[in-house]
Amino acid sequence: MKRFRFMPKLAAAIVSAAMIFSGAVPTFAAEGTTNVFTVYLGLEEGAPVPNKTINYTTEKVSAPAGATAPDLGDLTATFSSTDSPKKVSDLSDTEKLKAKLSDLKRDYYASTNVSVNWSDKKFDKAGVYKYKITEQKLDGKFNNDPSTVRYLDVYVDASESNGEYTYSVAGTVFHENESDPVNDKNEVENKSLGYFDSYNSVDLTFEKRISGNQMDKDDKFLFTLSLENLEKMQRIV
User: Fold this and answer.
1) Which neighbouring-strand residues pair with 117?
2) What's the pLDDT tens digit per position in 45-89?
3) In 3D, which of 115, 132, 114 has the Cα closest to residue 31?
């Protein structure tokens, strides 16, 4: 009777597999800097774009089983007075965006993108990593989006070459709610358009008061208003 000598072969296979998997050290492929969401700032007619930085904190919510989510750190949106306001009515083929901007009751707006540099973010498994994004409170002439919290899904793919695995960010999805289902990164369902803040430009109000009992309600008073250094004033926030 012929005997099959499979034990040495099995042992060799185990050693070979051990060599392969011991060499599969996770590494992170730098993806550079990518935009992850947009911030819109509603403006009144005639108001310049102000110099303004809006801050956002990030918080890890979930990660694939056994994975460690890297910190994203604080994020910022920066508006500059060198930018030009855009007219809401000029938007085309973006009815949802136009509707969101119209809710701000502003005829003009400015927008800026918020980005993340993935080069120093290490992911150790493929899958979807979820983060909570919170817009910090605005004051003075600025108004926050009615909802200051959003959620960012980060899609990480794995690739293998010569037994070495590399993990890289394949895409992101920005959500309104944590409970929104995870979609394919290429789908648009449940995506958030971004944050919608607003800016109240300075309104000048003045009045003339009269006293006594000889006034005439039909009297009119004419005023001349002279403004100087307008270019400098437009750059003041």
Assistant:
1) 33
2) 999 999 999 999 999 999 999 999 999 999 999 999 999 999 999
3) 115
Q: Are 171 and 141 in contact (CB under 8 A)?
A: no
Q: What's the predicted TM-score (pTM) here?
A: 0.71
What is the pLDDT averaged over residues 166-172?
90
Put residue 32 in one of left, alpha, beta given phi > 0 → left and psi -120 to 50 → alpha: left
Total domains in the chain come to 1
Q: Which pLDDT does position 205 carry in this prediction?
A: 66
Tokens 């695995």 locate to 165
Written as six digits, the tokens of 79 are 């508006």
Domain span holding position 172: 33-199
Which domain CATH number covers 117? 2.60.40.3050
Task: Confirm if 130 and 185 have CB atoms less than 8 A apart.
Answer: no
Q: If we measure between CA atoms, which residue out of 149, 134, 151, 158 comes closest to residue 67? A: 158
Question: Do the domain assignments include residue 25?
Answer: no
19 within some domain: no
Mapped onto helix, strand or coil, the DSSP state of residue 196 is strand
What are the tokens at 29?
Answer: 């492929």
Token code pair at residue 184: 């394919």
User: CB neighbours of 225 closer than 8 A, spacing ≥ 6?
Assistant: 204
The three-state secondary structure class of 181 is coil
Q: Is residue 21 assigned to a domain?
A: no
Structure tokens at 96: 């949802």
- How far apart CA 81 and CA 237 sit, in angstroms, is 9
